[in-house]
TrEMBL record:
GO terms for molecular function: methyltransferase activity. GO terms for biological process: methylation. Keywords: Methyltransferase, Transferase. It comes from Chitinophaga niastensis. Residues 21-327 form the Histidine-specific methyltransferase SAM-dependent domain. Pfam families: Methyltransf_33. This is Dimethylhistidine N-methyltransferase. SUPFAM superfamilies: S-adenosyl-L-methionine-dependent methyltransferases. The keyword Transferase applies.
Length: 328
């Protein structure tokens, strides 16, 4: 006899295995309430981040783009000098709008390499596999859809070639300094002596310039932060009242920590599904994201602490941003 299990009635409570739900509940139950910024990037968050990158206050994208468009020949030369023959692996490849300049330069120099973009979004990888060959017909491309370390592990089983890892866009800034150290140490474990890492850092500069980048006049960064509350409302059946929170970016020039908060404008209760109630005091801060800024000396220290040796630095003309080349 076949027993057909009864399907449970649709339930407003999320299962305990849902990591989004668990992370949100855990973050909102902590003494310093926080949300994990990786959840910013749903479809609406992706679109808002695209708009942030177009904002004139958000200088980071333009600075790194300038480095890639004007210095790809020098970067390509350095990669060949320090690595010889290699494959190019990009963590969080996105649409490769910056790295395409380096990819093209390497192809123009007849460098034999395969490009392995890694991204958590299957859609991103699908798009890259569809669009890049049209732009770079001779490119050998193998997309990897999944979590960085898991994909690096798979790659190590598949290819024994030397690796050049790209981690662009100041993504490392979204870790606090301790987490950046442990991330680099972990990365190092998937690399061999002689492998290279090219990673972008936003540099310390006048505090107002940094603060404005996270507080654009048109309110796109504000909307980007609030989008996560909308997402929680929609996907986890919560009832955040957006009008009762204020976007509050901060920058501490002594530590280089640029942190964004949402401030509760009054004492209030927020429900998540039927089981969880979170209470906010008036003026309580919900910590959303860090975007850590560095000096070049601090990037050198980070390399030294995590098993890398800095071999070259590529700056934009204002020296606001640096792509550091480190070797294992
Ligand atoms: C993705 N990351 C490098 C951006 C940053 O600058 O920290 C995310 C961002 N958040 C607000 N504006 C941009």
């Amino acid at each position: 006899m076949t027993v057909i299990p009864t399907l449970p009635a649709p339930c407003k409570r999320k299962p305990a295995t849902d990591s989004f739900y668990n992370d949100v509940v855990q973050g909102l139950s902590a003494p310093q309430k926080h949300l994990d910024p990786k959840y910013f990037y749903d479809a609406a968050g992706d679109a808002l981040f695209q708009q942030i990158m177009q904002c004139h206050e958000y200088y980071l994208t333009g600075c790194e783009m300038e480095i890639l468009t004007s210095q790809s020949p020098q970067i390509a030369q350095a990669l060949q000098k320090y690595a010889g023959a290699f494959d190019l692996v990009e963590l969080g490849a996105g649409d490769a709008t910056k790295s395409i300049h380096l990819l093209r330069e390497l192809l123009d120099n007849a460098v034999d390499y395969t490009y392995f973009p890694i991204d958590i979004s299957a859609n991103v990888i699908k798009q890259l596999e569809k669009e890049l060959p049209a732009k770079l017909p001779h490119l050998q491309l193998h997309g990897l859809n999944g979590e960085y370390f898991h994909m690096l592990q798979q790659l190590n089983e598949y290819s024994t070639r030397k690796k050049v890892l790209l981690f662009m866009g100041a993504n490392i800034g979204n870790f606090n300094t301790a987490a950046a150290r442990s991330f680099c140490q972990q990365l190092r474990q998937y690399l061999q002596p002689g492998d290279l890492l090219l990673t972008g850092f936003d540099l310390k500069k006048h505090p107002q310039i940094i603060l404005n980048a996270y507080n654009d006049a048109t309110g796109i960064t504000r909307a980007f932060n609030f989008n996560l509350l909308h997402r929680i409302n929609r996907e986890l059946h919560a009832d955040f009242d957006i009008t009762k929170f204020e976007h509050f970016p901060t920058y501490d020039p002594s530590t280089g920590a640029c942190k964004s908060y949402l401030i509760s404008l009054e004492k209030q209760l927020v429900h998540i599904g039927e089981d969880v109630t979170v209470s906010f005091a008036e003026n309580e801060a919900l910590y959303m994201e860090i975007s850590q800024k560095y000096t070049l000396e601090e990037t050198d220290q980070l390399a030294a602490q995590t098993g890398f040796k800095p071999v070259s630095s590529f700056f934009d003309s204002k020296k606001w941003f640096v792509d550091c080349l480190w070797q294992c």
